[in-house]
Each structure stands twice: as C-alpha cells, then as structure tokens.
Amino acid sequence: MKIFVNNKETEVQPDKTLLEILIENGFHIPYYCFHPNLRISASCRVCMVEIEIKGRKTLVTSCSTYPQEGMKVFPYSENSKKARANVLEFILIHHPIDCPVCEKGGKCNLQDFAYKFGETSSFFSFKKILPPKKRFDNFLRFYKTRCILCYRCSNFWREEVYSDEWLSFGRGKRSFVGPFDTELRDDIPFLGYLTHLCPVGAILDDKDFRFGPRPWDMKEIKSSCFLCSNGCELKFWIKKERRERVLKSGVKRKPNKIYKIDAIDDFENPTLFCDRIFYGKDFLSNEKRVFKGLSIEEFKKKLNRTLNLKNPDEIALLISPRETNEVLLKIKKFVLKNDISNICVLPGNIHSGTENILSNARYPDFENSFTLIFYSLLDFTHPVTGFEIFRIMKEGKRRKRVKSAFFENVCFKNNHFAVISGWEDRFYKNADFSLKMDLKKSYEFLIDLLYYFYHEKKDLSEMENFKLKNLFFFEERIKERKAIFKESGELSEKIKGFDNFIVVFNDFLPPKIQILLFLLSKFHSKGKTLILRSAFNTEGFLRIFKNFEFKSYDYIKEKIKKEEINTIILYRIHPLYDTLDKEFLDLTKKVETFYINSFTFEGIEENNSIFVRTPFEYGGTFLSNLEGERKIADLFNYGLFDAESPEFIFEDETIKEEIHTKEYSLDLMDILKNDLPEDLEFVIEKPNLWDINLLFSENIKKEFDWKFLNPALKLKRLFD
Q1: Which of 544, 520, 549, 483 is nearest to 374 (CA)?
Q2: Alpha-carbon torsion 609, 580, 621, 551, what sign?
Q3: pLDDT recorded at residue 716
Q4: Which residue from 333, 283, 334, 297 is spatially nearest to 608, judged by alpha carbons?
Q5: 22-54, pLDDT tens digit by residue?
Q6: Which residues are CB-contacts of 90 (< 8 A; sequence separation ≥ 6)?
Q7: Fewer beta carbons within 10 angstroms: which end of the chain, N or C?
Q8: Which of 399-408, 511-520, 694-703 has the lowest mean pLDDT?
Q9: What is the 3-state secondary structure (H, E, C) of 519-539?
C-alpha cells in the first residue's frame, strides 16, 4: 500500500497504524495511551496528525488510524502542531512542577513532549488540584497529582489481567484512575509492570528506585531474566561507573546493584516482566547471601585430590541447570574426564526417561489447538507464559490489534482449553473444561485418555529415544481396560477434532506422569509438549548432557545410606531448599561434601565450599522454554563481593566430548501402576519454584515454617 507522508510517496503495511508508520520513518510523534502490549484506546489525543483523503482534510489520532491507499499525512502541519499543543496544555493544567524530585525526571515522556510540542505559556492561572498520594501493599505508590489520565494502567489491569481492582471512570475533574482498596490481589504478579507502563511518575516502586539515583546516573543494559525458564528479554538500569563525591548527609549508591527493570517497548517485539524479577533483582547486591569459602586454588586442589583417591562410583554430582551453556559445557568435560556416572538434576524431576522429554511447542501452535494444562500453577511458576496463554483463553478470538511479549499474532482462533488441577486458579475458572481432583485420580484420568487414543491409533512405534518394555502385556491390559471417567471419552473426541494438541505441565511432577503426558502427545499427529521448567536453563542442560543417564534423587539418597557414595558435589543446589528434605541435609554432614553456589546456608563452614558469581555477573547464553537462545549481559564485570566465575573451577585440558548413545528402557507396565502420592500440595511450598534467589530479596516477605522442617517461601503479593 502507498501513502504520502509530507507529500512523499511511502510504501507501508496496511496492518500498522499511522503512529507506527511515522515513528518508523523518523517522525517524532508524541503519544501516551498507546502501547504495543495494550489494545488501542485513543484516549490521550496527543498523537493527532492531519490527513487528507479524497481532497478533504481532517485531524485524526494516529494511534487508532490505519492507512488507506492514496492517503496524505501531514505530521508537522500547523493544525497538527496546534492540536498537540492544546492537548498538552490541558494535560499540564493540574500537573505539579516537581520534576527535580520526581523519579521520572530526566526520563519522562511528558517532559520531552511538552518541551518539543507544548506552549511556552498557559492561559490558565487558577489553583492546581492536588489529590493525595496512595500506597499499595508496601510495594507501590500512586501519585494522583502526576496522573495524566492516559489509562494505560487501568486498561492493562482490566483488559489484559482481567481484574476489576484497578479502575478508571468519569470524565474531566471527576475522572478516577486507580484501585479503591490499598490491598491488591495476591495471585497476579504484575504490579511492577505498572511502573513501566506509566509514562510519567504517577506509579512508582516504593522500594529501590524511589528517591534513589537519578535517570542520568543510570545506564541501560539489555539482558535476559534467569529467574525462570522463560528468559524474558529486558532492560536493566545500573549505576554508571564513575567517581563520586559523597557528602556527609548523603548515601553513596552501590554501583553493583540493579535499580530498575524496564521492558523493551519495541513495536514489533514488545516484552513483559513479572514481579518475580522486579522485586527479586536485589538478590545480586544482598550481602547476606555471601559466605566465606575457599579460594579457587584451594578448592580445586582439595577436589582434585578427592577425585584421584576415590572410585568414580563413590562420587555423586547433584547439579542445578541454573547455569549458562558456556559453563555447563565445561562441567560436561569435567564429568567425562572423571567418569562420574551418579548425576542427579535438581530442581525438577529429571531422571531416567524424562531426560528425553523436551519442549517442542511453539506459540504459533496455539492456532486451532486443544491445550491441556495439567497440574500447573502458571501464575506462580511462569507468570509471563501464563499471562500470554490466559490472553488466548479469555479473549483470543476477538483480539486483532494487541502485540505480545511472545506471540507473533495474538489472534488465535478456534482454541479449546482443558485444565486438570488440584487448585482453582483463574485458568481453572476460565477454561472450557475443568476438572478438580487429586493427583492419583488425575493419573487415572490420563490412563483413560491413553486408552481412547490407543484404540484409535493402536501404534507405539513413534517413540523416539525410548526402548519399550512389556509392550505386549501393556496392549493386553489396555484392551481389557474400561474407562473410569465419563469425561475422558468426551475429551478424547474433542482433542481429535483439533489440528494441534498441546500439553502444558511442570517438570516438578512425578516422572511417571511426565512420561504419560509425553505418550499422550505422541498419539496425536501434531501433539506438542510445553514443559515449564523449575530451573532457567533446563532445556540447554538436557541438550548439552544428551545421552547421559541421570539418577533419581531417591537413588542417590539410598546409595549414601548404604555408604556406596561417600563424596557429594553440590553445584548450585541447596541441600535443604532444593530437596525439601531434612534427611538429605543430615546425610551431607556424614560424607565429604563440596558446595559450589552463590548463596549461603546454615552449616556451610562444615563443607569444602566456594562462593561463585551468578550468571548476571559474568554473562553467557541459555535456551529459553521455547528453545530460543537468550543472552545474559555481563552487568557487573569487576568481581562482585570478590567472587569468581564458576568456569574457573572446571578449566582443564581439552578432552573428547562424545559418549556412547544411551537408549532409555521405558517399562510400559510400570506406567499402569498407580503408586503416586495423594496430591501435590507440597509443591506450593517448594522455594525452588520461585528460585533460591528470591530468598535473599529485601522486598519480599518471607516466612519459614521450621516446625515441620519445610521451608515455606511466602511471597507477599505474589502467592500466599
């Protein structure tokens, strides 16, 4: 399509608004209400431009107007400039002139646009209305005096979060924006994102950034969040490295601290972030996590001496995939060189056959799809993924304009969602089909589905990397079986009617259930799995350690009890929080233990320990939940807390990386045994679902239930 911008012919895309087209072509157009992650509201009116169609000129809001063939656009005409100046004057009528103390001062759209497009003087001289400021949940402050009624916050909360707490109504001086109550919902972790959406200083973080360093003292670094397996790409504000004079009354700000999180508001690829990183970012600069361990040289010397004296079968490596690909490759060489076979991966139930189960779903697969969400708390473990999926579940059929943090096109049609869970969250309440049951019953329900699928296809030959055992007996049992749940037959028929079948589940589920869900996906011609990982680089870990055989956590424990394993190496594993097992903590005290981590725990001095840096402090790459490679920027390259990168521990001569291909034997008869716990209530208490990093956040309320020796991480505002 061709239009004329300032009488210059321009080729444009018809699905983009005039605002996007003008900004892409280098025109500076002010806007407040428009945001690529929100639906168009055209409420602020400051983006008006003059257009001409069929000889008639008129003013339109460029954020809500799409191009037409032959349209003429005049972004800098006198009428356009006068209209924008008038709107800005109305916006500034009651706006306080507190730029020197406002946290947005220096990086404020209102400042920039008023300077470029506003009038130098005002016709209004009456007294400004100054409504009181409010504080919400000790996390946010809302300055109504600075609010310019762009309605971004209320539109996001009402139309994207689908909650009625943050409202907007009324007109003129009777306009109201914000929540009625000072306490907001505990199950929607996107309060921090409101501070990013607000184009002025009306909604502010009540913790780190308020009355802190100014925007011109900060620098933005693009990086990826690694507090879950989404790998959201964000901008991090850190202190510029420069000399600074500190007055007696002043406080020197730490340069080794992330002060603010921002999303990337690219029109083509907008991003999103949750409260997990927004309030958990201060883990990096929290000195309480630091412990005094050995030096690199001392640690390597003791470790090598032990490895040379012990039989490899007497050594166990418990490792967490909270690590970059570069360091994991070095650990892989270390494992091969020392012939360590007892490898256990935590958090998440990753051992035996589950190492062959990888996420292969992509967001375009949600088009014409049946999605089964099984025993997953999406808003708790992976909030951004849950946010995007809920968009489709709630109103996917009528969305046409909203961009997305992950989806290329949010308008997915003909979707059906089924939720099988033990909890009634918002996914359970809004799904097309919901079933609440304990874990054992839900397992039987999955067996029912397998029964219907098997009678339809009668083929298990497509199982890659799995050697099937007892296939004959399994088939005989399936033939004899009668369905227990009437809903299972209806659901299986529904699944067959869709082009795509997506199974969404967490990797903390028992391995047997993970394998069963994987089997179900394979019975559909386009079955896919979306596995929500407990550690951020599990997908990368499983690809790097492909063909390795992982041991179960219980197997390692039994070997230690039998004194067949007498040396443990814990890499980024907390022996209590990650295992949720006091018994294992006691076992680590009876054997020689090497502890490598970025946080402390009680009794660390009893082990051969070393304090290492987090990936945020040395950078690297990892694979997100959807196999997209993400990069973690090197935010602090001067040795935070005198720690070193863990790669120095595993530096050694180059050795071959190839190992013999291993094929896991899947016992199909074992699949039919219902020997599972009654439910999965305990997973809510597992801190590793929110990552150990949050334990050291100053902004999150933490309570520990030591009575039952289960560390329960209570996150105020996030999950309670």
Answers
A1: 520
A2: positive
A3: 39
A4: 297
A5: 998 889 888 988 988 888 888 888 999 999 988
A6: none
A7: C
A8: 399-408
A9: HHHHCCCCEEEEEECCCCCHH
Task: Give the model confidence (pLDDT) of 458-477 as tens digits.
Answer: 566 556 666 777 877 877 78
Q: What per-residue confidence (pLDDT) applies to 182?
A: 62
pLDDT above 90 for 290 = no
- Token pair in block for residue 331: 């650990």
Secondary structure letter of residue 612 according to DSSP:
B
Q: What is the DSSP code string of 448-512?
A: HHHHHHHHHH---TT-TTEEEESHHHHHHHHHH---S-HHHHHHHHHHHTSSEEEEEEETTS-HH
Question: What secondary structure letter does DSSP report for 702?
Answer: -
Quote the pTM value: 0.87
CA 485, 487, 491, 494 dihedral sign is: positive
How many angstroms separate the Cα of 207 from the Cα of each of 137, 240, 282, 285?
12, 20, 10, 14
Which residues, other chains included, contact 704 with Cβ-Cβ below 8 Å and sequence gap of 6+? 711, 712, 713
For helices 439-457 and 511-522, the axis angle rounded to 10 degrees is 30
CA pair distance 43, 448, nearest whole angstrom:
52
> What's the pLDDT score for residue 477?
80
348 close to 541: Cβ distance less than 8 angstroms: no
Q: Distance of CA 709 to CAs 558, 561, 577, Å?
A: 21, 20, 10
Q: Supply the pLDDT for residue 712.
A: 44
CA distance 146 to 102: 9
Alpha carbons 265 and 271: distance in angstroms, whole number: 7
Task: Give the count of beta carbons closer than 10 Å to the beta carbon of residue 428.
Answer: 16
Angular region, 434: left φ>0, alpha ψ -120 to 50, beta rest: beta
User: CA 277, CA 718: separation in Å to the nearest integer?
Assistant: 11
Whether a cis peptide bond, with omega within 30° of 0, leads into 711 is no
pLDDT at residue 689 in the model: 40
**How far is C-alpha 685 from the chain's CA centre?**
19
630's enclosing H/E stretch is: strand 629-632
Identify how many contiguous H helices and E strands the chain contains and give both numbers.
Answer: 19, 27
Dist CA 367 CA 697 (whole Å): 39
Q: Provide the residue count of the chain.
A: 720
What is d(CA 514, CA 616) in angstroms, rounded to the nearest whole number?
31
The strands making up 500-506's β-sheet, listed across from edge to edge, are: 433-436, 416-421, 369-374, 500-506, 527-532
Residue showing tokens 């863990």: 646
Helix, strand, coil % in the chain, rounded to nearest 5: 35, 20, 50
CB proximity list for 307: less than 8 A, separation 6 or greater: 315, 338
Please choose, from the candidates 704, 711, 715, 692, the residue with its C-alpha nearest in 3D space to the C-alpha of residue 283. Answer: 692
H or E stretch at 441: helix 439-457
Asked if 603 contacts 617 with a C-beta cutoff of 8 angstroms, the reply is no
Number of neighbouring beta carbons within 10 Å of residue 666: 23
Banded model confidence at residue 434, pLDDT cuts 50, 70, 90: very high
Which two three-digit tokens encode residue 294?
Answer: 């050995």
Q: Answer yes or no: are the C-beta atoms of 232 and 272 closer than 8 Å.
A: yes
- In angstroms, the CA 691 to CA 689 distance is 6
Please name the helix (run of DSSP H) or strand (run of DSSP E) that holds residue 621, with its range, or none.
strand 620-623
The torsion angles phi and psi of 146, rounded to 5 degrees, stand at: -90, -10
Give me the long-range contacts of 700-705 (CB less than 8 A, separation at least 24): 700/279, 700/280
Residue pLDDT, tens place only, 602-633: 777 667 899 998 888 888 999 988 778 899 98
Task: Tally Cβ neighbours within 10 Å of residue 430.
Answer: 14
